[in-house]
Amino acid sequence: MIPEEPSGGGTREPREPRERRRAEPESNITISNRHGDIGWKYLNAGNYQAAEKELRTAISYNPNWYFWHYALGLALHHQNRWDEAIQSLRQTLAINPKHDYSHLHLGYVLTKVNRYAEAEAEFITAVRLGNSAAKDYLIGTVNQVRENSLNSAFQKARTEKNSQKAEALWRKYLLVEPEDSGAWNNIGVALKEQGHYLAAEAAYRKALQLNPNNSLYKNNLNHLMGSVEHGKALEELKAAKEQGRIAKELTMEGMKGRSMVCFDDSRGCTYSKDHSVELTVFAPPNVRSSSPSKPLPAELKKDPEFIKLERNQQRIDQEYRERFDALQELWSKRDRGQGDKAVLDILIVEQRQRLSELKSEQRVNEIQTETIKKKYILD
Q1: Does the pLDDT at position 82 exceed 80?
Q2: Of the candidates 172, 161, 167, the residue with the CA atom closest to the CA atom of residue 185
Q3: DSSP code of 11?
Q4: Torsion angle, alpha carbons of 202, 204, 206, 210, to 10
Q5: Residue 85's closest CA among 110, 64, 65?
Q6: DSSP 259
Q7: Most buried of the four, 135, 157, 295, 329, by CB within 10 Å?
Q8: Which residues, 6 or more positions from 267, have their beta carbon under 8 angstroms from its beta carbon?
Q9: What pLDDT shows up at residue 377?
Q10: CA-CA distance, 341 to 89, in Å (whole number)?
Q11: Alpha helix (H) residue ranges in the chain
Q12: What is the mean pLDDT of the chain?
């Protein structure tokens, strides 16, 4: 539950000197404080309608005391009267803009009406004013904004029938909700549509691990396992092992024993432990097939375009290795609970996106290199 400012000496408007109170009838401040105190007690007791009545009376006698507006905002908030609560809390801040709990509660109420950008600004202000509780709400709001953005983009990807884009979006969503079985199932669907049948199997199994009784996930997995395409993928994997096309099998530092298998010719890598599969892990670009290659003709090595492509490949390899190492370090920090999880998630996404871009650049460079080789090498 969102914390409320504790009651105490800061709740009441200062009264007049005792001498004046004895000589004169009750002032508006005194009457306001009496109703406000009663309203605060009702609020703490959970009688929100009675609290609202007393607090409105207190405000009518002293509209310039910020705390009664704040308390009224809480009473309205607990009645789910969001617009009225927002109005009361904004009135509080108009009188006392440095009241951190008003910023905190206003941010919370704004999330209830899906005004996340405004809520984020209020939480940031509360944090800057020293409210430690606001940080958790700020991180949650940032994640919610990210989730909403991803869901919107995913719907667009589905409309465009772009399964690769949909898969990438669901992977990002898993940074917000890593245990969402529906997201893993949807990744499986997207991977199957792209022809990545073994990876789709891993995603479906992860979905079932999180939600074992879901009939849709079971049907998706059973349908995939019984398909001709999945059978061919298994045969291809078996042939790859027999032909030595498994480039490397290793355990990455910081991956907590999760085994990673890489193909040198097409697919990058996946790693797994008991079907807990993270579908996007990148192998360093120097992971190559161990089979010997033919020596290059001397004329080819002197070709200016070939030299340019080779240098470009070296640049790609260098950046790839650096970003790969940086990604492993970020994952390691995240696994050990070092640093702000939300910040680490953002940095991980950025590194993974750039690694994907470099992989595409590498492929284009390889195609161009092969085209030049054909001028000098006769099959």
Answers
A1: yes
A2: 167
A3: S
A4: -170
A5: 110
A6: E
A7: 157
A8: 196
A9: 65
A10: 31
A11: 18-23, 28-45, 48-61, 66-78, 82-95, 100-112, 116-128, 133-160, 163-176, 181-194, 197-210, 215-225, 228-242, 298-302, 304-336, 341-376
A12: 73
- Token pair recorded at residue 350: 């950025």
Residue of 78, 70, 79, 76 whose CA lies nearest to 104: 70
- Residue 342's pLDDT is 60
- pTM for the complete prediction? 0.41
CA dihedral 338, 343, 348, 353 (to 10 degrees): -170
Domain-wise residue ranges, the chain: 18-144, 294-379
Buried b (16+ CB within 10 A) or exposed e, 38-67: bbbebbeeebbebbbbbbebbbebbeebbb
Q: Which helix (H) or strand (E) holds 162?
A: none
Please give the CATH architecture assigned to the domain spanning 18-144: Alpha Horseshoe (1.25)
105 touches 97 (CB < 8 A): no
What spatial distance separates the first Cα and last Cα of the chain, rounded to whole Å?
Answer: 72
pLDDT at 77 over 50: yes
CA 89, CA 92: separation in Å to the nearest integer? Answer: 5
Asked if 347 contacts 327 with a C-beta cutoff of 8 angstroms, the reply is no
Residue 201: CB atoms within 10 Å: 22
Kindly state the tokens that stand for 258.
Answer: 């999760």
DSSP state of 211: S
Give the tens place of pLDDT for each residue, 153-211.
Answer: 666 666 666 666 666 666 666 655 667 788 788 888 877 877 778 778 888 888 898 89
Rounded-to-integer distance, Cα 359 and Cα 339, Å: 29
